[in-house]
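Bumping with the actual sequence this time:
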Amino acid sequence: MARIPFLKKRAKAGQEGPEAAGLRPDLPKHIAIIMDGNGRWAQRRNMPRAMGHRQGVESLRGIVEACLELGIEILTVYAFSTENWKRPKEEVDILMNLLVEYLQKEMNNLDRQGVRICPIGEISKLPAAAIRELEKAQAKTKTNDRLILNIALNYGGRAEIVQAVKGIARLLQEGTIKPEEITEELISRHLTTRGLPDPDLLIRPSGEYRISNFLLWQIAYTEFWFTDALWPDFTKEHLLEAIRAYQKRERRFGGLRL
């Protein structure tokens, strides 16, 4: 991903901004969400797991709309991890088909709303139809500047760091850099999120309290918020609750506020 210019904005005129939602203006610029709980949502209703994934797509639509209304600048969602390939092939195929369907149905609307779609992860290993739709969406929305929507697909935080290390090792081997020139900034530039600020707020629905190999480098100073709500039940109200909790915290980044 190329370095991304800082986005315009907050909410457009006529839309609900942070003050109308009972929030202070100092919103998190970058929100990351682990979209978890689709399967359990379906099982509790005696439905096929596919129905949970489909309802999860509806939740994503609603949260993208909410981010646009509030003026959030970057939304990164964990859609498919490197470990998710271990699931039954039938479920993996359903997830990939839902991705294609989502992009085909939503691309024009997202483009009109000023959303830039950016896949992160080892995209080349996805099915051809998914790669094709992602490339189309990326090309169509590349100049949009209201909201960056990062979709993490075939993504793993450890794998991302390994790839960054390999890239830096090649530079060392070529003599392009010296060992003492390896810095945190250099490593960040070799990640798939290069050019973006680290997440300010990480949200995990479903009652789980783990990171699941998501953005391991980038969340060093991210604020976490957990909820028992399953992702298909996650609404704008949950998002507002998470942001309110975030705004009550004092972010010190390892230092002290004097």
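The tokens above came from a reply further down the thread. The mean pLDDT is 93.
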